[in-house]
Design a protein that fits this description.
265 residues; alpha/beta; seven-stranded parallel beta sheet; three-stranded antiparallel beta sheet; 23% strand
Length: 265
């Protein structure tokens, strides 16, 4: 991640949380604490945040320029670097479910973003709310790409619409692919209600829901529930998944695909 990108994401996180410790920022931005401390010092000198003991806090009122609301959740540029080799394997397996000529939906996320590499030689009709994925596919493939209307949320790299009547309702797909911060007995989890609003609209337009979740996401809870397990058709995870959880998902009539992590480079 470039320094400029990291600085922008750091400011976005402060807008969302008001305060963040060096340790928290290090985790969210996938950078060393030494790097985060240097970033805080530099941004404080430019009066873009306030440096405090152990972290940083947002500037309030007239002290800072107005910034638009942010979504809760991990920054895309940081998330895509976490377990990237495993996510790539999950994405490769996911694309095997696609047939040329199909209409599919790809929800924005770090795991589904990895599908770009394997979609390069395919010929599909793709609706995605991922601005970064759409940009890549337009440049590297012959797939037909459709973006919904709405506002671009830079931190997650996705487009969300607050309107019920948008282009999503005119799109019908055979499959929808999505990642998740967690999946367990409560269902498929999500980090922000605005994400849920859009994802539920997308899900209504697809015949099948295919979830990509590496083994660290299994059994993990988040702030909100997107949908129950009864609405999930396929779960693609890795071979380090807890066998008890795999059995639980299979008993819920979910097809579980286990990808061998030893294939990762």
């Amino acid at each position: 991640m470039l320094e400029k990108q990291r600085h922008q994401l750091l400011l976005d996180i402060l807008d969302e949380q008001q305060f963040a410790s060096v340790n928290d920022l290090s985790t969210q931005l996938n950078a060393s604490e030494a790097t985060i401390r240097r970033d805080i010092t530099k941004l404080a000198k430019h009066e873009q945040l306030r440096k405090i003991r152990g972290g940083a806090e947002v500037l309030h009122g007239s002290e800072r320029r107005s910034r638009r609301p942010q979504l809760s959740g991990t920054a895309f540029l940081a998330a895509k670097e976490q377990r990237a080799d495993v996510k790539r394997l999950l994405a490769k397996e996911a694309v095997k479910f696609c047939e040329d000529g199909e209409f599919i939906i790809i929800n924005g996320g770090s795991s589904t973003y990895m599908m770009r590499e394997f979609l390069a030689e395919r010929h599909l009709n793709v609706l995605t709310n991922s601005f970064v994925l759409a940009q890549e596919l337009v440049e590297t493939s012959d797939n037909q790409i459709t973006l919904p209307g709405g506002e671009l949320y830079r931190k997650q790299g996705i487009i969300l619409s607050a309107f019920e009547n948008d282009t999503i309702q005119y799109y019908q797909a055979s499959k929808m692919f999505m990642g998740t911060p967690g999946i367990g007995k409560f269902g498929v989890m999500e980090s922000d209600p605005l994400l849920i609003q859009t994802e539920q609209k997308l899900k209504k337009q697809a015949d099948q829901l295919i979830v990509l979740a590496d083994s660290t996401k299994l059994g993990k809870r988040s702030n909100f529930i997107l949908c129950p397990l009864s609405e999930v058709d396929v779960l693609i995870t890795d071979s380090e998944a807890d066998p008890a959880l795999v059995k639980y998902f299979e008993n819920e009539n979910i097809q579980v695909i286990l990808v061998d992590v030893n294939q990762a480079d």
